[in-house]
Amino acid sequence: MTSIEHITLEVADPTAAKIFYTDVLGLGAWVRVRASEEPTTGFRGFTLSLICSQPANVNALIDAALEAGATTLKPAEKSLFGYGGVVQAPDGTIVTVASSSKKDTGPATRQIDDIVIQLGVADVAAAKRFYVASGLTVGRSFGSKYVEFEAAARTVKLSLLKRKALAKAAGVAVDGAGSHRVVIGGGAAPKTDPDGFVWEAAS
């Protein structure tokens, strides 16, 4: 089964970004950074989603991110599906932090249970076919609206949904152009998906 071992964010200030993702969010094993001045405007077409076991952990991570220079896109609050909020990292990456639970069961920590890269795509069915052909296994699928792929332990999960729906969930306008400024690390060979998301071979 193809797995995402890491993602690489292309940023203007790699030193600052490495501190943010490694020291603040604790994602050093899964998120890499490298310098890039590729032009981009507006929504970059993806979000990084951090899944926690309880609301207190969501708050702890969001508070740490805000203290480190992130900005609020959606304040953390309860919803039909649990509890969560959305921030934008100093480098521009949109990070959602959420829990399916609405009640705390222990002291707050910054523990993250799952990491998901969510891609906003033009055609969910077409993107699903591409990724199945590339060796990923579908875990959950809701027609042409949402697909979630299975992932091995300690790897990054992948989900697909319509670009407009992802932008709405993130609290940003759907418009955007230029580089996605993210490279997905996984599989045996480089590839580019139908929406221009680039994969590099796992190291």
Automatic annotation (TrEMBL):
The UniProt record lists the keyword Metal-binding: yes
Protein name (database record): Glyoxalase
GO molecular function: lactoylglutathione lyase activity; metal ion binding
Organism lineage string: Bacteria, Bacillati, Actinomycetota, Actinomycetes, Micromonosporales
Keywords attached to this entry: Metal-binding
PANTHER family given in the database record: BLR2520 PROTEIN
Keyword Repeat found: no
